[in-house]
């Protein structure tokens, strides 16, 4: 859930909301694949940071690399594939151009 929220916050930081993308563009996003490596457990009251990077993207999919960390170090590492779907049919549909451009901009940094 921490990784999902971090991806949502990344979109929000770029000026997009999931609600508006569904309403205005007819697009929703779903995790197609997740490969996780659990390195260490989080503990009660740990302050967690989630690092989210865009590894690559295609017209339909975005591939994220994410890490969950705390002051003790790395807790979890994940490679997440997210697909863009039509909100009506739940069939794959292209990622909106503005989102792809914003993702391209931050993945180039």
Automatic annotation (TrEMBL):
PANTHER family per UniProt: 4-HYDROXYBENZOYL-COA THIOESTERASE FAMILY MEMBER, ACYL-COA THIOESTER HYDROLASE YBGC
Protein name: 4-hydroxybenzoyl-CoA thioesterase
Record's signal peptide: none
Pfam families: 4HBT
Organism: Acidithiobacillus caldus
Domain of life: Bacteria
Molecular function in Gene Ontology: fatty acyl-CoA hydrolase activity
Residue ranges constituting the Thioesterase domain according to the UniProt record: 2-76
Annotated SUPFAM superfamilies: Thioesterase/thiol ester dehydrase-isomerase (SSF54637)
């Amino acid at each position: 859930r921490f990784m999902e929220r971090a991806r949502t916050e990344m979109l929000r930081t770029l000026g997009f909301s999931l609600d508006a993308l569904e309403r205005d563009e007819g697009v929703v996003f779903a995790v197609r694949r997740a490969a996780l490596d659990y390195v260490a457990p989080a503990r009660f009251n740990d302050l967690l940071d989630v690092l989210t990077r865009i590894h690559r993207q295609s017209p339909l999919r975005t591939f994220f690399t994410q890490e969950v960390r705390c002051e003790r170090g790395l807790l979890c590492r994940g490679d997440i594939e997210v697909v863009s779907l039509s909100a009506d049919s739940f069939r794959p549909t292209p990622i909106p151009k503005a989102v792809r451009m914003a993702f391209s901009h931050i993945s180039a940094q």
